[in-house]
Design goal:
- 2 copies of one chain form a homodimer.
- The first copy, chain A, has about 180 residues and is of the alpha+beta class.
- Chain A is about 15% helix and about 40% strand.
- Chain A has 5 helices and 12 strands.
- In chain A, strands 1, 2, 3, 4, 5, 6, 9 and 10 form an 8-stranded antiparallel sheet that branches. In chain A, strands 7-8 form a two-stranded antiparallel ribbon.
- Chain A starts with a strand and ends in an 8-residue tail after the last helix.
- Chains A and B meet through strand 4, strand 5, helix 3, strand 11 and strand 12 of A and strand 4, strand 5, helix 3, strand 11 and strand 12 of B.
Chain lengths: ~180, ~180
């Protein structure tokens, strides 16, 4: 994995991939699967919807940090598996044979098997709507990885894999942030 | 277009498609292209990131309603075109030859060419983060449409088209909301 420039990190999230979010509560690591995410700012700032129904939420609220890891299509069964068991009785790193790596800034673990890992600090928790706003403070990407297609949840138990890429950079030039 | 049950509407948004958001300010209709969206609740409730930098924001704030229209890949150049001009000097329905249809509840127009249209009422504007929270109050879908693949923005001027679909309904059964 190599460091990724922060001004490019929003491009990992904008297309709406299913992501894995790791936390560390001071004693244990945990992972949750999240599909309800949004870019809020290019810098980047992200929002995710979560609350007490996710066991990870207590750790997220307490530590005010997490890692957003981007899995790819070859990891789909791991992603679904993580989303259908609970950290309250399962060590998900062990169960799903995932490898921890240490972040540069936050204590939540990176997931080495993922395409990219985004270290985040919580900026605000909008309790009324269960929205957690966080800023990325460091990120890394695995350039050696061959499989780069992410997966998008439909919400009914089906998933859509990235298909064809279409380039509209010229048409969009006036709207793109610098250096992306 | 036929009505779509509200409990299924979140499945139009969860995968993270680029969407068109229409507004009506009392005099004029407008359309903006938005990629920064998130599901917040199955009922459904959505969040979008927008603010004064979008000309449509004033109408959205004033009328407290909008339509989220879901375009497909055949409409990509329209979607990018809408996102790179402003309602302050352009009638986008006319410029992009789009057909208005009347909603059942809100005054913002539906876009007949789109796969689906979701009528929304604003629930809250979280000014601090430029997040607008809205609930869907009605929705319609065009079942006769052959092209159903939506497009996901990467954020760097490239777009990803829906690819292969993978079914994990059985694995996910315990986590799916009823009737979806």
């Amino acid at each position: 994995m190599r460091p990724l420039e922060l001004n490019k990190v929003f491009t990992l999230m904008e297309s709406g991939p299913v992501v894995l979010v790791t936390t560390h509560d001071g004693q244990q690591d945990n992972i949750m699967t999240i599909s309800w995410t949004m870019v809020v700012d290019f810098t980047p700032v992200f929002a995710i919807t979560t609350g007490a129904w996710n066991y990870s939420f207590a750790a997220l609220r307490k530590s005010r940090e997490c890692v957003i890891a981007i899995p790819t299509v070859d990891m789909l069964d791991t992603v679904v598996g993580i989303g259908t068991c609970s950290g309250s009785d399962t060590d998900k790193f062990e169960k799903f044979k995932l490898t921890r790596a240490q972040g540069r800034i936050v204590k939540s673990p990176l997931i080495r098997e993922c395409l990219a890992n985004i270290e985040c600090k919580v900026v605000d928790i909008v309790k009324k709507h269960n929205i957690v706003v966080m800023e990325a403070v460091a990120a890394s990407i695995d350039p050696a990885r061959k499989e780069k297609r992410v997966v998008h949840a439909v919400g009914d138990g089906t998933f859509i894999v990235d298909g064809r890429k279409i380039d509209r950079r010229k048409m969009m030039a006036s709207k793109l942030p610098p250096g992306v």
